[in-house]
Design goal:
Elements: H1 3-14, H2 27-34, E1 44-48, H3 54-62, E2 68-72, H4 76-85, E3 92-95, H5 102-108, E4 114-119, H6 128-141, E5 142-152, H7 158-164, E6 167-173, E7 180-186
Parallel strand pairs: 1-2, 1-4, 2-3, 4-5
Antiparallel strand pairs: 5-7, 6-7
Length: about 190
């Protein structure tokens, strides 16, 4: 096992509430997560729970020069790594705070809403009250017609997402360890 994957596994066993995966996400999962992001129009992009930054790097490669990426990470070792890696990119803000606070950071920078929010948060690891606060905050931060894209390892989050979003498309990829479901939810 390579060192990066080995470190990820250690963090998973140390911090099961904030680290929801046993290894970094695959390229196949990243492709499915980003499939419904319109990078030509997305000016404000938000990412929750980036871990080691697999999706973050792909988002940065695809986003326009005038776009902004807000990245929320509460696991300190991952936060510090991402902060160092992206410190020279003015378009990227690495934030050590809860995803519930997303609107505070958007408003601080005079942004009304986000075009898209991508989440790798392990929703089923949290108590339902916190999960609903995260999802409601995301929905309130999104522009009308914006996408909330979430991956999970089971279909357990479907009912919770349906309480907030009226349109949900579910994709599945076996090319990830473990295999994953990608939920694309549209704000009314």
């Amino acid at each position: 096992m390579d060192k990066k994957k080995d470190n990820f596994l250690k963090e998973f066993f140390k911090e099961r509430k904030t680290v929801g995966a046993i290894r970094p996400s695959s390229k196949s999962l990243a492709k499915k997560m980003l499939k419904n992001v319109d990078f030509n129009d997305a000016k404000i992009i938000v990412e929750y729970g980036p871990g080691t930054g697999v999706f973050t790097r792909r988002i940065i490669e695809e986003m326009k020069p005038d776009a902004m990426l807000y990245v929320f990470e509460l696991h300190e070792p991952f936060f510090l790594k991402l902060q160092k890696e992206f410190e020279n990119d003015e378009r990227v803000k690495i934030i050590f705070d809860s995803a519930v606070e997303v609107r505070k950071y958007l408003e601080k920078d005079n942004h009304e809403s986000a075009d898209v929010i991508l989440s790798s948060l392990p929703l089923t690891n949290f108590d339902q009250k916190l999960t609903m606060r995260i999802l409601k905050s995301a929905e309130m931060a999104l522009k009308s017609g914006g996408n909330y894209i979430q991956f999970q390892y089971s279909l357990n989050a479907r009912k919770l997402l349906m309480k907030i979003f009226n349109t949900i498309d579910i994709q599945f990829t076996v090319n990830n360890l473990p295999p994953a479901f990608v939920y694309t939810c549209k704000k009314k």
